Amino acid sequence: MEQTNQLLQALRETSVRDRRDSAGGAALRKARIHRPTKETDIRASLNIDGRGRYNISTGIHFFDHMLEPALLITEVSTLSSRRWATLKSTSITL
After folding, report:
1. How far is it, in rounded angstroms, from Cα 87 to Cα 66?
2. Distance (Å, rounded) from C-alpha 7 to C-alpha 19?
3. Quick one: fold of 2-93?
4. Are strands 73-80 and 55-57 parallel, antiparallel or unpaired?
């Protein structure tokens, strides 16, 4: 029940921005989320209209490598002292 409440709170805190690009063209679709838990602190940004640039840092190099092909993910930052908590919480956040 507590995890469900935390997830719902994280979803409420998610900010979605809809703004025009610098040339005044189509709207840019972005989302940003911050999900702190007892074991982790995760920040993620998604950009549906992004240009394929990303900055992924979970502390687990293989996990970083697996997230790189997901072109919608522009930024992931995870702080955790436990590997399983990093994998679980980052996956739930995304």
Report:
1. 11
2. 26
3. Ribosomal Protein S5; domain 2 (3.30.230)
4. parallel
The 8-class DSSP code of residue 34 comes to E
Q: Distance between CA atoms of 11 and 68, rounded to whole angstroms?
A: 23
pLDDT at residue 55, rounded to an integer? 85
**What is the per-residue burial (b if ≥16 Cβ within 10 Å, else e) of 30-51?**
bebbebebeebebbbbbbeebe
Domain boundaries, the chain: 2-93
- The pLDDT score that the predictor gives to residue 76 is 86
* Global pTM value: 0.61
* Neighbouring C-alpha atoms within 13 Å toward the C-beta of 93: 30
* pLDDT tens digit sequence for 9-63: 665 555 544 445 555 555 567 888 898 988 889 998 888 776 777 888 888 888 8
Burial of 89 (0-12, 13-18, 19+ CB in 10 A): buried
